[in-house]
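If it is no trouble, can you show me the amino acids of a protein and the tokens describing how it folds?
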Amino acid sequence: MEYYFTESDNVDPENSILKIEGFEYKHLIRVLRKKVGDNVTITDGKRNIFHCTIVEISKSEIICSILSKDYNLFEPDLKIKLFVSPLRNSDRFEFLVEKAVELGVFELFPVVSKYTVSDNRFSETKITRLRKIIVSAMGQSQRCYLPELHNIISFNDMLGLTENENNKVVYYEHAAGNNVNKSVFTDSGLSILIGPEGGFDKTEIEKLIENNWQVKSLGNRKLRAETAAIVSIFEQFNYSK
């Protein structure tokens, strides 16, 4: 059973009720045809999970009675920050975001490097669409933490943002055979950087090395950016168990 989302402000723990509104309301009522008496599982994206019964449906919201509560089920201990260049094809970037959330990333940072094709900041419409994708992916995969999507930052801003972090890996097609499987990160934080369709400039790799990023390869095949992101996340979660 997938989870559905409501903002934490919509939860009233003292009276054991919560409300669902917005696009999740529309999905539950218009698509899934939920009705009074149906059971649903709701998360506020802050690791709280509420097992509920629908008690009232109006034209704009669903009121639920909270039957029981769980906390922080199945969220990974390893908190991955994914830094990735926006892609020319918006559908492929949306696919990347969806799968990254399903796999368990903690935060997503679109990064503009030298060969990034799409370097415009996201419009409000784009951010809203991506957030819906993130919410849907969270619920579908039964996650209870809602990953944060940041707006586009520059390559140099990314270097500054991660300056004091210990575990940082960039996947680079010319990484001389180094393999992700040889690097297992067991503490709580890891930053992963995936480059644009045009790859990284050599000076960017030099800057990354100067800033203590490990340069790794995902093997002999040249992967699309979205494939590289998915494989790198999966490998780190798989080997950090």
